[in-house]
Write a structure and sequence with these properties.
With 253 residues, the chain is an alpha/beta fold. The chain has one domain: Alpha-Beta Barrel (TIM Barrel). It has ten helices and twelve strands. It has an eight-stranded parallel β-barrel, surrounded by seven helices. The model has no long low-confidence stretch (mean pLDDT 93).
Length: 253
């Protein structure tokens, strides 16, 4: 059985790690390189870095930061935020990222997924999906959850897989930053219909939430991504992995 992964997420703005609720009311929580080293040392399986203020100038600064991160850790990491072309992805992969995450640009131009998979391999392509539950339907949003698209979560996830996505990173925008738990039923449905890994994001408030979203009877996700509970020290990764192992969930200790 494949081990489940624990993935701290670092939102990057102007070279600093920040955190807020639904990408609003952002506060600086530390230096991303130092935090990356700490998480690597604690036993994180992977890291995700999202450039939430990507601009032409910011892309240059972000690629330099990616180089520094790659020099300081020895675990895989994904980068995303504002990637809209194969060229954007190439810059970040050359800088040392193991994977790139695409979101709004893929919604606008789904062929971007297949172009990236063809160029770099599916293992490098993570399709991030932000969605909100509206009257029982999961509607895909873009631009940090601020705009609705015409896509629906489950059909878009299937399409992304068929185009060559290597993983799906689904964030419930209703749960993001609230620390009230994950949207487990949606993750369970995604995991049951896809052949690629599903990463759960949005809502972790304590270790029990992560146990639930990774357990077969809960969300059955392949990985759990979280930010606040790790950044503020509410949950330590070694303690979390011990708790998961005790619950019979396979993890790398």
């Amino acid at each position: 059985m494949l081990t489940k992964r624990i993935i701290p997420c670092l939102d990057i703005k102007d070279g600093k790690t920040v955190k807020g609720i639904n990408f609003l009311e952002l506060k600086s929580v530390g230096d991303p390189v130092e935090m990356a080293r700490a998480y690597s040392g604690q036993g994180a399986d992977e890291l995700v870095f999202l450039d939430i203020s990507a601009t032409i100038e910011g892309r240059k600064a972000f690629s330099a930061l990616v180089e520094r991160i790659a020099m300081n850790i020895n675990i895989p990491f994904t980068v995303g935020g504002g990637i809209s072309s194969v060229g954007d992805a190439a810059v970040l992969l050359r800088a040392g990222a193991d994977k790139v995450s695409v979101n709004s640009a893929a919604v606008r131009n789904p062929s971007l997924i297949s172009e990236m998979a063809s160029r770099f391999g599916s293992q490098c392509v993570v399709v991030a999906i932000d969605a909100k539950n509206v009257n029982g339907d999961w509607l895909v949003t873009t631009h940090g959850g601020s705009r609705f698209s015409e896509k629906e979560l489950f059909s878009w996830a299937r399409q992304a897989e068929s185009l060559g996505a290597g993983e799906i990173l689904f964030t419930s925008m209703d749960h993001d930053g609230t620390c009230g738990g994950y949207a487990c039923s949606a993750y369970r449905e995604l995991s049951g219909m896809l052949d690629i890994p599903v990463i759960a994001s949005g809502g972790a408030g304590n270790a029990s939430h992560i146990v639930e979203v990774l357990s077969p009877s809960g969300g059955n996700a392949d990985a759990a991504l979280a930010a606040s509970i790790f950044h503020y020290g509410d949950v330590r990764i070694p303690d979390l992995k011990k708790r998961l192992a005790e619950a019979g969930i396979p993890v790398r200790i």
